[in-house]
Amino acid sequence: MKNFQKLFESTMASLGPRGNVKTIEELKKEGYTGPDMSLDISLFEYGLIWKKDEDGYTFIHPTSHGNGYTYGHFNANTDPQSEFNWAKFDQVAQSMGITKEELLSEDLPNLVYDLVTHYGVENVFGSDYSEGFKVFDQNAEDHTDSDETGLQ
Fold it and tell me: Residue 14 belongs to what H/E stretch?
């Protein structure tokens, strides 16, 4: 619980004076990355970005209703087979065109991305019906609708 409180406080502090609005440029400066070289494509089309922090990885993904984004976190020492004991790793690996051993040897953010791709964000991170926060690409329009994230 102490780690969650610490993450919550740092998250709220990082939202800055605008409250619940972030820009892609701010997220880049904070060290976020994703499955695509382009951070905006990673978030707006693949629906997931992450950064390494002092005790694991912080993820940004769409809220359950798709009107904003929210945070998720996994510790660096997370055992995927224990944390995601509901997942059928053989099936996920087969859908990715790799072996189960290759899947389980991926670094945690990529494994989480593979699970989100296969099962959806709610199955991996749980439901979140909060308003979340909005993310803007200063060179494009608002990308907070679920249709644009590729995740329902």
Answer: helix 2-14
Q: How many helices (H) and strands (E) does the chain have?
A: 9, 5
Q: What is the pLDDT of residues 31-80, one digit of tens each?
A: 999 999 999 999 999 999 999 999 999 999 999 887 899 999 999 999 99
Please check whether residue 125 is in contact with residue 59, taking contact to mean a CB–CB distance below 8 angstroms.
yes
Residue 86 CB neighbour total at 10 angstroms: 8
**Half-sphere exposure for 70 (CA within 13 Å, toward CB):** 18
Single-letter code of the amino acid located at 129: Y
The least confident of 10-19, 96-105, 125-134 is 10-19
Rounded distance, CA 129 to CA 85, Å? 24
Q: Which residues contact 108 (CB under 8 A, 6 or more apart)?
A: 56, 57, 74, 76, 78, 80
Q: Which of 23, 28, 31 is nearest to 140 (CA)?
A: 23
Predicted local distance difference test score (pLDDT) of residue 10: 61
